[in-house]
Amino acid sequence: MFNGLGKHLRSWCGKASGRGRGIGMAILLGGSFMLPAAAQASYPERPVTLIVPFAPGGSSDIIGRVLANPLAEKLGQSVIVENVSGVGGVLGTQKAVRSTADGYTVLLGSGSEILINKLINPSGVSYDGLQDLVPVAFVGTGPMVLVGRPGLPARTISEVLDLARKDALSYASAGNGTPMHVAGELLQIRSKTQMTHVPYRGASPALVDIMGDQVDLGVSTLAAAQSHIQAGRVQAYAVTSAEKSDLAPSLPALGQEPGLEGFDLNVWFGLFVPRDTPAAVVEHLQSVAQEVLASEKIKADLAAQGISVSGASGQELRKYMEEQVEIYREVVKTANMRAE
Asked: Do 108 and 92 belong together in one domain?
């Protein structure tokens, strides 16, 4: 149909005067620019895929499923959660980066796969999280928590650090290059201590060995550690934020401890689309996501996962990421962190 329209317009332009030829060409070109806008205005016309770059059952997966149904209701189309796990979130993020930039593939991303993995493995990670992804909405942040084995002879964070200066302590994380690993290394840098990092494949196995007195300390997500803290199976010392958290009000903040002032390192989540996704589509997704995140039910569901909802714009998320990557870069360089 459009080819036929073009032929008629060209024929009309050719028979018209110079002024008429200009008007005819304007109509032709104007129509060609209007077509994509019309297509974008009807977005979405089919189901949207939400990539979670980790296996089912973990925090990222739970958060993705908490968001999927309300996003679908607001979009008027199904939102299908697709778990693409592997290489610490790299495979799923890579799939999102390489997907068609049309708004039908959205990534639920966090600090490790978006930023940290590229810093510790620059030649092995093909994408740049700041360049190849467009932030849509800032889902939220949550503090990590420093915990210790039941038999560790320390009851406060200052006692833990004094002990670390005297003895060779070990600390567990959810894996090499995770925010928990970065937080453990940053703690050593700021406190001038040295501890042995023991990486695990996730927070749960790390906590099992801490509870079993196999590892001295651990940095965990609040969601994974909370029940063990409440049951007394591990000792909790502090959250990894600059200020106390409403999600764990009884715990001090590392950023308020003497010598650690300003310590502030949290887990965070955002929604992203590939670079070159049309601005109108990004704006629509952002508006929908912010409506979803304003829901009190969603806030409560995410709080259960140790996440305080932000609901900020994609632009604000980008600014936050730019600040975070400087902290990550400092730690990776100083601690000589490398991919395993």
From this structure: yes
pTM, to two decimals = 0.86
Domain membership of residue 301 as a residue range: 48-142+268-334
Which pLDDT score, from 0 to 100, does residue 339 have?
Answer: 84
Task: Give phi and psi for 269, each to the nearest 5.
Answer: -135, 145
SS3 content of the chain, % helix, strand, coil (to 5): 50, 20, 30
- Do residues 160 and 227 both lie within one domain? yes
CA distance 17 to 15: 7
282 and 248 assigned to the same domain: no
Picking from 235, 256, 277, the residue at the C-terminal end of a domain is: 256
Percent of the chain with pLDDT over 70: 88
**Under DSSP, is residue 105 helix (H, G, I), strand (E, B) or coil?**
strand
Helix crossing, 296-303 with 59-75: angle to 10°?
170
| Residues linked to residue 194 through DSSP beta bridges, in sequence order | none
**Whole-angstrom distance, CA of residue 306 vs CA of residue 67:** 15
Q: Once rounded to an integer, what is the mean pLDDT over residues 253-258?
A: 96
Average pLDDT over residues 172-200: 96
Q: Are residues 307 and 326 in the same domain?
A: yes
Domain count, the chain: 2
Q: Above 60 in pLDDT, residue 119? A: yes
pLDDT of residue 340: 73
Predicted pLDDT of residue 21? 42
CATH of the domain at 94: 3.40.190.150
User: DSSP labels for 299-322?
Assistant: HHHHHTTT-EEEEEEHHHHHHHHH
d(CA 269, CA 210) in angstroms, rounded, equals 26
H/E segment holding residue 134: strand 133-148
Of 217, 234, 256, the residue that ends a domain is: 256
